[in-house]
Design brief:
The protein is mainly alpha-helical and 214 residues long. It has 9 helices and 3 strands, in the order αβααββαααααα.
Length: 214
């Protein structure tokens, strides 16, 4: 099966997103199109296409006549994102819980093994990536593509919050929480699973609130 061809817009999208998630660009920083064009050797058209995609993902804010900026979330935006995440993710989890496949369980096991390794050599970027993958795997068997779509969009925003404002120096609390969720998932224990899931979501939300003084 042929792989999809990478377009200039894809190249720009990946480059700018990497700049954001690796904290080379901070919330509120302007994205200079001329600099991107020079670095990547592309025209303005794919840059604008990529910026529109990033704006849709919630990573970039486009302001008419002023340019594009890395999103700087307001307190209201932060609260709304976590509220929506709790509602969507718990419902997707409930559905996936009773129809999950062996393949999903194996992928979750592998993810947890990597989280255990990370506990010994913590890296925030890897933590954010593994955390995102773990939660999306929990809902992949829900049988509703819109759950995956909306959670992916929410996680674009939440991953940015974690990268900039989560002050965690290890993943021990998150790992313990994820193991409880996984056990409930395998046992199809909906009540315990949802409780553990909400507690885990609250860990990240609480750390960010503390960091931002909310």
């Amino acid at each position: 099966m042929p792989t999809a061809k990478t377009t200039p817009a894809d190249k720009v999208y990946d480059y700018i997103k990497e700049q954001i998630v690796t904290r080379r660009l901070y919330p509120g920083n302007r994205i200079i199109e001329e600099d991107v064009a020079q670095i990547l050797g592309v025209s303005r058209t794919p840059i604008r296409t990529a910026l529109s995609r990033l704006a849709h993902d919630g990573l970039v804010q486009q302001i008419p006549n002023r340019g594009s900026y890395v999103t700087k979330p307001s307190e209201e935006d932060f609260r709304s994102v976590f509220e929506a995440r709790k509602l969507v993710e718990t419902e997707a989890f409930r559905k996936a819980l009773h129809s999950h496949t062996k393949g999903t369980v194996e992928l979750l096991k592998e993810n947890l093994k990597r989280q255990e390794v990370l506990e010994k050599r913590f890296d925030l970027n890897e933590y954010v990536s593994l955390n995102r993958t773990f939660h999306l795997l929990l809902t992949r068997d829900a049988g509703n593509p819109y759950y995956e779509k909306y959670l992916d969009e929410l996680y674009n925003r939440i991953s940015t919050y974690l990268l900039f404002w989560d002050t965690s120096s290890d993943n021990s609390r998150s790992l313990a929480s994820h193991k409880k969720i996984f056990a409930s998932f395998c046992e199809q224990n909906e009540e315990e699973g949802v409780r553990a899931l909400l507690e885990d979501i609250g860990l990240g939300e609480g750390d960010i609130k503390k960091s931002r003084g909310l």
